[in-house]
Amino acid sequence: MSDLPNIEHSIAIPYQLRVLFTEKAFDTQNPLLRHVLCAKESGARRKAIFYVDEGVASANPQLIAQIEAYFQHHRDDLNLRGIHLLPAGEPIKNNTDYLKQIYSQIEEQKICRHSYLIAIGGGALLDTVGFAAATAHRGIRHIRFPTTTLGQGDAGVGVKNGFNFHGKKNFVGSFAPPFAVINDFAFLETLPEKHLRNGYIEAIKVALIRDASFFDWIESNADALNANDTATIRELVHRSAQHHVTHIATSGDPFEMGSVRPLDFGHWAAHKLEQLSDFRISHGEAVAIGIAIDTIYSQKAGYLDQASVDRILNLIQKLGFATYAPELEHESIPGENTTLAGLEEFREHLGGILTITLLKEIGQRFEVHEMDTDLILQSISLLPR
After folding, report:
1. For residues 331 and 310, what is the distance between their CA atoms, to the nearest angstrom?
2. What is the C-alpha separation between 236 and 261, in angstroms, rounded?
3. Which segments constitute the 3-dehydroquinate synthase C-terminal domain (predicted)?
4. DSSP class of residue 31?
5. Does 140 lie in the same domain as 201?
6. pLDDT tens digits, 103-130
7. Could you report the per-residue pLDDT of 257-272, keeping only the tens digit for each?
């Protein structure tokens, strides 16, 4: 035993989580990106490597040329070190070859901690590039350009990066706030219908756990959303992003040291459902079903009234989401529903204490530390099909 005293000291590290809104960010007359890249230092050309979702590049055939023209226009301040295309969708997070490729390009271009990795795409690409940025040199500045409603309103505005491993979603990852998130609304104009809708469900989720008036607004504007009304979509994305960022910044647990994860309402079943469908079911579609399960469970457990359940399920369906998938009935061995394994995986993900968010009413959530598996199965059986 040593007689020397232990050393303990609190370390407070300030972070600024910035979500910036613009349109046509790569128009040479739009100064936003240049200002962001040159914000910290002057007198040196800022190096940047871009990683672009192949689907986004295909839907926006002028994008690569626009990025090149933007950096050429600002060549006194900016130094473009490459534009690389990566596949779209969840499979990119299952293949370490893509991570190795990014690390190699960082080394080849001598990208340092004062340089930038810029990702343009959906949530899977943002996760992969963000994880590479957070781990190369113990942290390279990272800028996200989410190109989906899901990314701009939820996944792209947070502080997490993840990569799938051992067959589990986001088994490896990091907490690393991006240097900036730039929501360019122009990308939503070329978004396929399915991906345009996916962000709506995360807006419903955050409304259910935080803001009943926002839920009312989504309900009142469902027809406009279904008609792809530009102003309505932009307002939904902005309000959803604001709620997500506010929760991260003010919850007292931005890096999830505890086990309470209200922003993961409906996600324990959703993550498992994505795996069981081999990611045929998108994240937004899976979350819609997961919310439906936990909403019905909240009512069956005696917490939520039936009228609220009906409103929630009706809105989910009105916006074009299914509330059931046959994978929910999968059995790994006869008599054992595989979906229930999602609870154990979620507990591991949380750090050992199962914590599930449920609803007392629309806009008011609470947490439980155990769930009745028979009641879960009853809730699944009651899902509208």
Report:
1. 29
2. 22
3. 199-330
4. -
5. no
6. 999 999 999 988 999 999 988 899 999 9
7. 555 577 889 999 998 9
